[in-house]
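Q: Cytochrome c biogenesis CcdA family protein, please. Structure only.
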Amino acid sequence: MLELSIAGLLTAFVGGIASFLSPCVLPLVPGYLSYIAGGTAPLQTADADSRSERWRALGLSGCFVLGFSIVFLALGASITAIGRLFLAYRYEMNIAAGIAIAFAGLVVMGVLRMPVWVHRYYRFDPAAKGGKPLPAVVLGMAFGFGWTPCIGPVLGGILALGATSDSVGRGTLLLGVYAIGLGIPFLLAAYFMAPFTRRLATLRQAGRYLQVITGAILVAMGIAVASGQLMHFAIWLLKIFPVLGRIG
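A: Structure for Cytochrome c biogenesis CcdA family protein:
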């Protein structure tokens, strides 16, 4: 389906970025990355040892991203499988999915406020020391489960869209792209950990504007899904970004 491969995947990717920029994720990124790297933050210098440390941090962060990607892929496959049991209600499911996505967008933009308890997360402190691939994967999986209430509005919208997919593979792909959107900023932050930490306050300010943009995209996508205009939305995206025609 063209509209899913373009508009849906773009929405999932944007949703992942929005989740990274959320107030309950972004401030805690340095702490997670420091643990993953073994308690040290690689310096941003031209020194060979520093470059080696940054590549090491990047690899370990890749394990972390793999961990939460596994969780999101499993959620995507599960919700799509459940959604296929209700194919007779596809029209109603599309409306519900569109509303959920638009709602997520309004929350990301700050137009709607969620209760305080929604922003809580379940912290997981692994017994194993950081600096190794396996603990990084386990911590990533714990992140995927523990942060679900915090990133719930966005994740819920993507899951709702996945539930309307015509195959488990497409629904899983949506969550995979969501994980990529969330994972790429983590990898960039890991490689540039020192400047990322120093400029976190600035990033938080810039992130507010980016959240408004990503939230607006989610709202537009939600309206398109609920109104049955997803194909027209996809065609519009193709005209604006022709390179998207190579996707899918």
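A: Brief note, in case it's useful. The chain has a mean pLDDT of 76.
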